[in-house]
Specification:
The chain is mainly alpha-helical and 92 residues long. Helix content is 58%, strand content 0%. The protein has one domain: Chromosomal Replication Initiator Protein Dnaa, Chain: A, CATH 1.10.1750.10. The protein is built from five helices and no strands. Helix 1 packs antiparallel against helix 3 and helix 3 packs across helix 5. The relative contact order is 0.15.
Length: 92
């Protein structure tokens, strides 16, 4: 299982930005939006060895310094853009 920092570093390097830039507040249409959405999607899909999800939406939101509803929106937007079926996560 990767940490949130490891995932953020991988995505930031892939797109030529810093983790600090990835954590900046972004707005619809901002060039960083798709990159941040990719990082959020990746974090919401990361699982522990036992198959449960690594972090709650709230925990991811705290890392990005935003509200959990922003995480839900970013996840939905990324899935739609990438053509990935959006499956509800079950509460553990």
């Amino acid at each position: 299982m990767r940490t949130r920092n490891q995932i953020a570093q991988e995505i930031a390097l892939k797109h030529g930005i810093t983790i600090a830039e990835l954590k900046l507040p972004v707005y619809r249409g901002d060039k960083l939006s798709p990159i941040k959405q990719e990082a959020i999607w990746t974090m919401t899909q990361e699982k522990k060895e036992d198959g449960t999800f690594s972090w709650s939406y709230r925990a991811i939101a705290l890392w990005f310094r935003c509200d959990h509803t922003s995480i839900l929106y970013a996840r939905k937007t990324y899935a739609k853009r990438m053509g990935i079926p959006l499956v509800q996560r079950n509460k553990a």
